[in-house]
Specification:
696 residues, alpha/beta, eight-stranded mixed β-sheet, seven-stranded mixed β-sheet, 17% strand, globular
Length: 696
């Protein structure tokens, strides 16, 4: 087979995804299909490589699980050393904890006795950025702020003083754009203004402010040019040596490692008189990195870096090689890369600038001037040279500000289904394998048909992890129902979560009651609820926040006994309203196919006693009032007797959920889930079947 490494990398990637998502049956199917696709004389190698990937996944997952199983209050010792602008704590030469620097206090490198609270709190919802997996992709088990860790020096390890390097940093710090140069040279973006980072990201040119494959190529080219007095063999080896030292010094960002390995393999191909195949090389490097750390697939740098090179190789070989004009090649390739990256960019960022190539082309050209100038200033101590570099970078900023100002060309897009994104790039990855195009087409059609069947039949119920508050999303096909929205935030958190589920508008909105931890987040998504029908219970409409909501029609449920869709029905429980809003919550049974969900808002024991005769056993219960001790009476729990009890709760000072309440549900054989540990998603199928997945 011409590009076996390409196929092995794709199958390995799919195996890692399915194993980490615990889709074991699908993993077995992928393994079998990959074995069938592999030519007979490669099959033994295929089995060995795939088993190595599987063992690596299980080993890494076990190591991180062992760390999670430790006591939350960690008292240990280990080596603390720098990690870019931050620090890393290395325990037992294996477990690594990232220490985020805060303030101006430096930590001296050495062995320390340390004490901290482990497992930082992060929101965990489907398709959203998973910081825990991101940490794992960089080899870290946990992260802690410098101010939240106590450390006592046991043995110091003095840093080697490099006067020449320190003088270069001193000169660089006197420039106007020192914060940007730290990102370009050392992958340190901590001092770059967040608005500028957002501008470059929206323009699609953020890769120039960090160490990307472009930088590594430019650095290799710089050293190769500087050493031109020597023969080509020595120049290549010397340039490779300098680039290797550079990548090691900046803690080996994923994109730089990929670019470095590609350079090393291309140089090796020259010395071996072998043809350099970019796709084969890309597959070999991808497989090697995944074997070294399977969680690397969750690193956006890994995804962007490999997809960009894939698009460049396929499009250049297929369309642009015959174009003689370098400028036209650059222009067309930039446009094609933007189009090709669109599924991945929209999946992660949910917006695309249609004119990003206008900023990208001059930015890429000029960043080469800036980087070469910075490298030259390292060897030639000249402030005049640095001032010229400042001027060039001013031009880069001006171009990006102008393009960023054309905000009418920015499209906001919901995240496409992850399976479709993977399928698109898998097809592109294997595009050149003509022998397998028929099988790829069959696979693609099968995946799309399965996804369409799932999309039209399966009801998804999300108990979203949005902090201390309630937010429940029910979705089937293109119909969406949102129940509450959690707290109002400064970051449009709910909007981002909904976009990640592929949702840009809400069809039905249900407000349980008008407390801020239920209605606040809805104020952030008014544009998404303009055409919705709003259901509520009086007297909640008397609250100012309620009247700030956006909707097409509002319906008081006081006169409704039920409301039906084809695949869902609401049966409302009526009781006299209280002035206290918790006990004015909307209570309803939701029938989803043959499964039943009970919504309870924040009702307390008074209301539970009042409606006790209207209660019956349910499959899924939204536990009242975040698991407060003032609700979930013994009689209520016995009458409802849920198979699954979900407590919507986040970090709080109220003691929610109370352990006595959790125990009460568990004593009735209920499976208890808490959204503070991550989103709880329920997949509901026809014929009285459902499946619960906790994203923790």
């Amino acid at each position: 087979m011409k590009r076996s490494a390409t196929l092995f990398a794709v199958i390995g990637y799919l195996l890692i995804i399915t194993i980490l998502k615990e889709l074991i049956v699908l993993s077995v199917m992928i393994f079998i299909v990959g074995f069938y696709w592999t030519q007979e004389h490669y099959r033994k190698l295929y089995i060995i490589l795939m088993l190595l990937i599987i063992l690596s996944v299980l080993s890494f997952a076990s190591d991180y699980s062992d760390y999670d199983a430790l006591e939350s209050h960690m008292i240990t010792s280990g080596l603390i050393k720098s990690y870019g602008v931050d620090y890393q704590l290395i325990i037992d030469k294996q477990t690594k904890v990232l220490i985020k620097k805060e303030g101006e206090i430096e930590i001296e490198q050495g062995y320390y006795h340390v004490e901290y609270e482990k497992n930082a709190f992060f929101y965990q919802n489907p398709n959203t950025f998973n910081y825990k997996n991101y940490l794992h992709s960089k080899g870290f088990s946990d992260v802690v702020k410098q101010t939240e860790i106590s450390y006592k020096l046991i043995k110091s390890m003095k840093r080697f003083n490099n006067t020449f390097f320190d003088s270069f940093i001193s000169r660089l710090s006197q420039t106007k754009h020192y914060a940007y140069y730290k990102g370009i040279l050392f992958n340190d973006k901590s001092n770059i203004d967040k608005e500028v980072l957002e501008m470059f990201q929206d323009n699609g040119s953020s890769h120039v402010l960090a160490i990307s494959g472009l930088h590594i190529g430019l650095i290799f080219g710089f050293f190769y040019s500087v050493l031109k007095v020597f023969n080509k063999r020595f120049r290549r080896l010397a340039a490779c040596f300098f680039v290797v030292m550079y990548v090691l010094a900046i803690n080996m960002p994923i994109s730089s490692v990929r670019a470095l390995l590609m350079i090393l393999l291309s140089v090796a191909a020259i010395y071996q008189n072998r043809k350099y195949d970019l796709l084969q090389t890309l597959g070999f490097i991808g497989y090697s990195l995944m074997l070294f750390n399977p969680y690397i697939i969750y690193h956006t740098g890994f995804q962007y870096s490999f997809v960009a090179v894939l698009i460049i190789e396929v499009c250049y070989q297929s369309f642009f090689r015959s174009i003689n004009s370098y400028f036209m090649q650059l222009l067309l390739l930039s446009v094609v890369i933007q189009i090709g990256m669109m599924p991945l960019v929209s999946y992660h960022n949910n917006q695309i600038h249609l004119l990003s190539f206008i900023a990208n082309i001059p930015t890429v050209l000029l960043i080469g001037v800036v980087l070469n100038g910075l490298l030259l200033s390292f060897m030639i101590p000249s402030m005049t040279l640095l001032h010229w570099i400042d001027f060039v970078f001013d031009v880069i900023l001006s171009i990006n500000r102008w393009v960023y100002g054309l905000d009418r060309f920015i499209l906001e897009l919901p995240s496409p289904p992850f399976a479709i994104v993977v399928l698109l790039y898998m097809l592109l990855f294997l595009f050149r394998e003509k022998k397998h195009r028929k099988y790829l087409l069959v696979t693609a059609v099968s995946v799309i048909l399965c996804w369409c069947a799932y999309f039209s039949l399966v009801i998804e119920v999300y108990f979203l992890d949005i902090g201390q508050g309630d937010c429940i999303l029910i979705k089937r096909g293109f119909t969406t129902i949102l129940i509450d929205g959690g707290l109002e935030t400064d970051t449009d958190h709910l909007r981002g979560v909904l976009y990640k589920q592929g949702i840009t508008s809400i069809d039905y909105l249900i407000v349980s009651h008008s407390h801020s931890d239920h209605i606040g987040g809805l104020l952030d998504i008014k544009d998404m609820t303009r055409e919705c029908q709003l259901f509520y219970k009086t007297p909640n409409e008397l609250e100012p926040a309620f009247n700030s909501l956006s909707y097409k029609e509002k319906i008081a449920i006081d006169r409704l006994s039920s409301y039906n869709l084809k695949w869902l029905s609401f049966d409302f429980i009526h009781y006299p309203s209280f002035n206290e809003l918790n006990n004015a919550s909307l209570v309803a049974y939701v029938t989803l196919y043959e499964s039943t969900l009970l919504l309870t808002g924040d009702i307390e024991s008074d209301v539970e006693d009042m409606i006790i005769d209207q209660l019956y056993e349910v499959d899924i219960l939204k536990v009242p009032h975040h698991g407060s001790k003032t609700s979930s009476t013994e009689m209520f729990v016995q009458n409802v007797s849920p198979e699954v009890a979900v407590i919507c709760v986040g970090k709080n000072n109220y003691g929610h959920p109370h352990q006595e309440i959790v125990d009460r549900y568990e004593q009735t054989d209920s499976s208890v889930f808490k959204t503070q540990n991550g989103c709880v998603k329920v997949y509901i199928f026809p014929f009285d079947n459902y499946f619960v997945k906790a994203f923790n």
